[in-house]
Amino acid sequence: LIGLANPAVSDLDLAIDVDVKTIRYPHAGIAWRASPRLVLGASYRGGFRLVIDQTVKVRGDLGSPDTIVVEDGRLDLRSISEDLFQPAQLTVGGAFAATKALLVELDVTYQRWKVFDNPTARIEIELDIKQFNDLVMIPPPRTLENPNLRDIVVPRLGVEWQGAPGKRAWTARGGYVFEFAVAPEQRGESNFIDNHKHTLALGGGLTWASLGKVIARPFSLDGFVSFTYLQPRDHHKLSPVDPVGDYTAGGHAIAAGITSRWRF
Amino acid sequence: MRALLVLALSGCGLGWIDGQDDLTTGLPTSGAGPYARLESDDSTPASEPTFHDDNRASVEDPSMLAGGPGVRVWFTQATVEPVTSEIRYIEAASLRVLPSSPETVLTASEAWEEGVVSAPSVLANPEGGLVMFYEGGVTTPSIGRAVSTDGLSWEKDPDPVLVGATSPSAVFAYGETWLFATRPGEVGIWRAVDAGSGFAFDAAAVIVPRSDEEDAFDRLTVAEPFALAVQTLDDDVTRIHLWFAGTTDLPNDATSIGYAASFDGVEWLRFGGLKPMLAAEATAPTVVLEAAGGSMLFAEPSGGASFELNAASH
After folding, report:
1. Which residues in chain B touch residue A139, judged by CB atoms under 8 angstroms apart?
2. What is the reported pTM?
3. Residues B12, B36 contacting (CB under 8 angstroms)
4. By the number of CB atoms within 10 A of the CB, which of A36, A41, A102, B85 ranks highest?
């Protein structure tokens, strides 16, 4: 029973059906030592999207415990949204040992952003309340703007300086990445804000031949810090009544991390 | 006679749905709307949301600028017996902080004003200082102009700048002065343009009631315009904001505040569909835009034919 005038008298049984599906995508890579000083490589990471599909179904008679006004009423509300997206990425690159101590690396990654869909929830509503159907007008689902993202090629340049080998060897690293904005200028209703991104990174590491008798094999500890600058970008709106209006987007992000390597 | 000021701060929340965070705080916005009345502040001993200094007068037609301690407001103060109408001024740190007393800054002195000045529209003068456009006159309401360096002492032009107009709101755009006003006997909100040789009305009103839309908040009348000119990121494009009062009689008599905008002053679009930006009862808006929101002062009925000022935010 669904209380029509008084929701408190509703008496509904609850059932939940959840189906969580695994998302699988491929990873593959290959490296080829073309010469003693040059290593070439390629890798592929598959794309995926996490879609959340939720439906709420309400079935019941409408009215009060004493009087049923509508028998077998029905409300179906479905929401489909894209919660996470990873573009497919194909990378080719090489590492060239300029000297015994200096390694120079360059790679380029093709990122498949074009297939990104508008992640906003798509809502579908179906209502059947029999003789009262004509009194309810459910608007059609809103048409979502295509984000029109573009595929990009991301270059990465890195250098690594290898200190003298020994009981405690050190390594210093630096790198630069440039990423084109994947989203176009936002001139309509949507606001997929994206910028050209310049990232500078510095890092280094230490490798110990061993850590006493317990860790007899080499042990490495590496760290990095990176600074990403989002190049300021203007967005000019076409409509004079755009609720957001023109704006400039920019910013920066700082990241840092530590990794350890254990040989066994 | 003691002065009167009523600044009502009645409550509700931000966003389309009162009391629910719409997660837009801090995000960029044009400030078009929607607006919601400010929540009352229970931490103060005052009998908010209203402040009374005199209950015999009506406070109407606010015009607000950012400045001074926070905001500067010019408004009409009118009484019925005796018939008076003058323009007064207050400063406030914010719309929640009530001023101690208003100051009279403009009274009728010219013959054409016929003892009445009202409906100030104050904005920064491109030549420096401030400029005020105001309504005067009874038999033939007209728009006068005055300039000031401090907002308190005003020097009037001897003659009206536009005859046969009421409720002015002015902007400077594209090297011209645009006056938005209503006209006695004419439907809609009109624009008059002064490109250097005096004001002249456009051939048609810029905003008219949507009489064929039963659910429109402005199906009967549109009036009380407030315009703002905001430079876009293009140096040669200005966005003209226009808030205005609209009335309907369906399902009940109601006056609320809507919004339209234009880039050229000729082609206008409304925002919000048939809905107002601020729910009834509200009229005579004035807005100060902020980086991520907007503050609105407006007039609302306080009983009988009188009005008081109230505040809302976006």
Report:
1. none
2. 0.83
3. yes
4. B85
